[in-house]
Specification:
With 385 residues, the protein is α/β, with parallel strands linked by helices. The protein has a domain of 144 residues: Rossmann fold, CATH 3.40.50. 48% of the residues lie in helices and 15% in strands. The protein has a seven-stranded parallel β-sheet with strand order 4-3-2-1-5-6-7, with helices on both faces. A four-stranded mixed β-sheet has the order 9-8-10-11, with helices on one face. Strand 6, helix 6 and strand 7 form a beta-alpha-beta unit. Helix 4 runs parallel beside helix 5, helix 5 packs parallel to helix 6 and helix 15 runs antiparallel to helix 16. It is globular and about 55 Å long. The N and C termini lie far apart (59 Å).
């Protein structure tokens, strides 16, 4: 029996690498693919992997795709309804959620309601709605298998823990392209500068987030929900070589670490085949060449996004949604050249300061908080502040 999966965000970095794994092993059937607006690339994926359902976010692009694949046995849908159908409306056993942003919340919930396991790469879902997602997973008896390299590393380190609780999570960070820089040095950073990550090949938004260390803050909030720990039990450690992907410490002081090359196919494959480990082609760590590993304390003064994330996570409620949404909007504006690099943090901080926190928000309230953050940033940028 071939395992059946659906991939949301199939034309992005995680989605395409997930399909690399499928292509290599040849024993997984793809039942549904969903993407944003890249109709041409999605058509290529449909012709190769032959899903029964395909979704694009925009209706006009979906109609374009429908005409292009009229010779194939595939149904084309669009929008949020289509994304939910791609997540929950096929016989997939596992759904890879690799869309970017809070758009992933409703499809993830729908997939879980339908009894499907989740290979989670859409960290925003847990950051903003972890209080909904984790109890639902327990209620429905579905597994949430982390795909982010750091969370996969933690997950791998706790296998065989015998029920012993974690004392501390040591979440590693590369430090990004501006590690060691001051705010003054970062004043003139351009998008092309911030998109040059020293170790990882990722999508544009996550690469910018890595450069500001906002991504690490989002990962701290995600880890809090995935592993049922408090925010203050998660310590960020800068490990510039991206060799140690994260570590866990137990009460007796023992520390377990997961090491490997910076290749996202490893955590993706681990989630797709868990608990089985399979051969993965590619480079291996050469410890003779490595010779040493270095560690640093994160600079929360010059990289304020990490500190703001801890604040949002500790205060909870709807504030993490505001943090995440403000960052999404600000990063998009930075990539379009509408604001400067340091304005990303200023806008996030401003959106958080003006927000009135809602405890245990429903999905609609989470999305309202998102819209509030968007409107605040638009007003600030349009007024020239």
């Amino acid at each position: 029996m071939r395992k059946k999966i659906a991939i949301l965000g199939s034309t992005g970095s995680i989605g395409t690498q997930a399909l690399d794994v499928v292509r290599y092993h040849k024993d997984i059937q793809v039942t549904a693919l969903a993407a944003g607006g890249n109709a041409k690339r999605l058509e290529e994926q449909i012709r190769e992997f032959k899903p029964k359902l395909a979704c694009l976010w925009r209706e006009d692009k979906a109609k374009e795709l429908k005409a292009a694949v009229a010779d194939l046995d595939v149904r084309v849908v669009w929008g949020m309804e289509g994304l939910i159908e791609a997540a929950a409306g096929t016989d997939a056993e596992l759904v890879v959620t690799a869309v970017v942003g809070m758009i992933g919340i409703r499809p993830t919930i729908a997939a879980m309601e339908a009894g499907k396991d989740i290979a989670l790469a859409n960290k925003e879902t847990l950051v903003t709605a972890g209080h909904i997602i984790m109890p639902l997973a327990k209620e429905k008896g579905v597994r949430i298998l982390p795909v982010d390299s750091e969370h996969s590393a933690i997950f791998q380190c706790i296998q065989g823990s015998g029920g012993n609780r974690l004392c501390r999570i040591l979440l590693t960070a590369s430090g990004g392209p501006f590690r060691g820089w001051t705010r003054e040095q970062m004043e003139k950073v351009r998008p092309e500068d911030a998109l040059k990550h020293p170790n990882w090949a990722m999508g544009q938004k996550i690469t910018i987030d890595s450069s500001t260390m906002v991504n690490k803050g989002l990962e701290v909030m995600e880890a809090r929900w995935l592993f049922d720990v408090e925010m203050d039990q998660i310590q960020v450690v800068v490990q510039p070589d991206s060799v140690i992907h994260s570590m866990v410490e137990y009460e007796d002081g023992a520390v377990m670490a997961q090491l490997g090359t910076p290749d996202m196919r490893l955590p993706i494959q681990y989630a797709l085949y868990y608990p089985e480990r399979r051969f993965l082609p590619g480079a291996r760590l050469d410890f003779a060449a490595l010779t040493q590993l270095s560690f640093e304390t994160p600079d929360m003064e010059n990289f304020r996004g990490l500190g703001l994330a801890y604040e949002a996570g500790r205060r909870g409620g709807s504030l993490p949604a505001v943090f995440n949404a403000a960052n999404e909007k600000a990063v998009a504006m930075f990539l379009r050249g509408q604001i400067g690099y340091l304005s990303i943090m200023s806008l996030i901080e401003g959106a958080m300061e003006r927000h009135r926190i809602i405890q245990n928000p429903a999905v609609d309230q989470i999305l309202e908080a998102e819209q509030e953050a968007y409107e605040y940033i638009d007003s600030q940028v349009n007024s020239g502040k």
